[in-house]
Amino acid sequence: MAAKLSAPADIAARSHPIGALPAGTGALMLDTYRLTKRFGAFTAMDSVTMHVEPGTVHALLGENGAGKSTLVKCVAGFQRAEEGGILIDGREQDIANPIVARALGIGMVYQHFTLAPGMTVAENLLLAGGKTPALIDWKAQRADLKAFLATTPFSLDLDVTPASLAAGEKQKLELLKQLYLRPRLLILDEPTSVLTPQEADEVLGHVRDFARSGMCTVLLITHKFREVMAYADSVTVLRRGKAVHHCRVDQTSPAQLAAAMMGDAGEGVAPPPEGDAPAELKAVAPTGRALHTMKALASNAPIALNVENLQAMGDRGTLALHDLSLSVRSGEILGVAGVSGNGQRELVEALVGQRARLSGKVTVMGQPYTAKRSENRELKVRSLPEEPLRNACVADLSVAENMALRDFDQPPLARGGLLKFPVWRSRARKWIGEYGVKTQGEGASIRSLSGGNVQRAVLARELAGDINVLIAANPVFGLDFAAVAEIHARIVQVREKGGAVLLVSEDIDELLELADRIVVMSEGRVVFETPAATAERHVLGAHMGGGHH
Question: Which of 461, 472, 470, 532 is nearest to 499 (CA)?
Fold first, then answer.
């Protein structure tokens, strides 16, 4: 450990706003003081000072890699900072490991489930306590658990196993495990990433109620502005390991938070004037979209992609797609919404040729389409798959070679059976400049690039030339704010030039922003369709959750 920086007396002397709370119970006050964490030469967290009031929901907002997870892992005892201090109720604490954190009343719910799948809900709850007796008096324990559940807004059957629970119910069980331990500080790491909007509202609503009751303080990591605005009291924005913006939620707006997240070369971020969205955001949201949609429908643009009664198997040998039908017109973005695991991945793979089709018919511009390379070229079909490094690249090949995968055997990249490598390289250099791909050069292996830059390289390849149909699956998953804005703008450009876009996304906000029409997939079927301009979040959520009207 490097020399600890002791926190100044003014932080230590802050009075407890909840007044008469006995020591060691109820919501705690958390302060971090100049907390710094390095991994080798990389500084993941750089002198972060943050104040979290007891009994409040405090949101941590920032791009991937901004330092959010590092910060909460230090507070929860999973990592140790090299410098700085953590104060609980104004006293500096050395949180050496998760056991110390738990003793201080700190609990954490992870993004990934940590349930024992073969054990019942009751057993999972008891296991969380960590002090399970050798012989369990189940009658007394069940009565205790039932009494505990009665104090929470969730109803889960104590006898079912997590294996039979939906994602939303698993997330509730993860939360119940922590609440059962009566935490004084509850850390939630993107708790809603697997939930429908309804489930997200339910979970966050309850969490906020627990905080307001004075029972615990909540630190919420999220990347959704809507959740911050609706459920948090205060927010800290992290960027590149630094805390760049602190404010009360009722004194900010999504546009100001976006500007703080994106920042500029200067470190100090002055919030933009109220209501003024950053330029990147303006570029993404094309004005008069409803008008554009009306025109596209009125002009009866041709159907570019048509899918009829498509069936395909899932990885577990059961049907993943049940007679699925949809169509996308030229000059239209059709959004496909759904909670992860409802057949969206299988749909995309069946369309792009990565998964066998059992039955059904797919046409592009009226021609049969079986996703052969020659058809992709003739019918001008392109795709932006999820996890591009795994699904759209050959990791060990160079950036230039990956950019040439579509047309390496076509002129001008090949002549008379000979491959023209200098042409590959010069085109790659042009695209690297055009798409702002950060790489050591066109000869670097594509696996050496960050996620956003891999996606930019794939975009350059897929968006070159004319496009009839673009199939995009979670195209901005895990990317930072600037990359998201840029990729969205390029997808919109495909539509503006008359291409048809099938946009599969688990992010409702992305679909509401970009799509002309939205369909919802649930259990391998299309269960609902609506124009995006009049789509209502709660209605989409009801269908995503399998609740059909």
Answer: 470
